[in-house]
Amino acid sequence: MRQGKRLIDNIAALKGNDYEPNYIVTNYQNWLAVLKTKPNDYSIPGGVIIDDFGQVNVLGIPLVVQNNMPAGTSSGSGYFNNATLIGDFNRAAIIQSEGFSVNFSEQDSDNVQRNLITALCESRVALAMLRLDSFIFI
With contact defined as beta carbons under 8 Å apart, do 63 and 31 qualify? Predict the structure, then answer.
């Protein structure tokens, strides 16, 4: 069983529970593994498609690359070495624990000499999964 088939199996599991998975979030290592999966490895021609803009889709669901997806080790099953999240993101919300702040400073390195201003923009946010059964983390 290859990466493409593993994704397709989990998409089917979510759809079987009356959810509509609309994003697959993974890291670059898994993204590359999906791109290297040949159609005969999961026997669904056109299951993994790359559009004109380079966006990878699995059964029409965008495969989004996120660098901070946690890395792990293979659990012996041989599917993925790192984490992938498949889910119905309509069942999630962004929670903001601290407000958005913007600070400007001229006191950074050689900003005064070069006539520059440094901006620091930050906020603390998290993803709240409102229905845990609408997500599969592999």
Answer: yes
Structural domain includes residue 121: no
- In this structure, which long-range contacts are made by residues 91-94, counting pairs with CB atoms below 8 Å and at least 24 apart in sequence? 91/19, 91/129, 91/130, 91/131, 91/134, 91/135, 92/127, 92/128, 92/129, 92/130, 92/134, 92/135, 93/127, 93/128, 93/130, 94/125, 94/126, 94/127, 94/128
CATH number at residue 49: 3.30.2320
> Which pLDDT belongs to residue 136?
92
96 domain-assigned: no
pLDDT for residue 72: 55
Identify the CA nearest to 70 among candidates 133, 21, 137, 11: 137
Q: Which secondary-structure segment (H or E) carries 16?
A: helix 3-16
Whether the pLDDT of residue 122 is over 90: the answer is yes
List C-alpha distances in Å: 22 to 4, 19, 60, 81, 89: 16, 9, 9, 23, 6
Q: Is the pTM of this model over 0.85?
A: no
Query: Are the beta carbons of 57 and 97 closer than 8 angstroms?
Result: no
